[in-house]
Specification:
By secondary structure, the protein is an alpha+beta fold. Helices cover 23% and strands 40% of the residues.
Length: 146
Amino acid sequence: MHPAQPARPTPPGLEQPARALVITPDYEEIAVRTTLRYTTEDPFAVHIDFPPGSSDDDANVTWTFARTLLAEGLVTPAGIGDVHLWPCGPAHTVVELRSPHGMAMIRFDAATLRRFLHRSYAVVALGGETLEPALDDELASLLGGV
């Protein structure tokens, strides 16, 4: 019998509320409160959480994409696939999200996104990202604690 592994403490992270505007196909703007998240469990990624009511089925929705994409999209158009970002004048950044269900364009205050990005660097410095904790957990799970 193997001794129980001590539980890993909850990893430090960052959560920051952010107001945004969803741009409709008619160019109407609808205010939405989002939460920007960053955790050490997923150090290469940032997360945008949308509240219930943001989707057709009223479920919470989270979009996850590379932290480096956020940094790039704050200064120049960036992205491939499902997530694109670009500056919209000096004060705003647009995040475009695509799925099989459609496309959404969300306008954020660029200063809010920059502040979040810089705060994420205090949690894990740029270039200091590692997957070791996640890999350790997966290996322990596969090996049954051996």
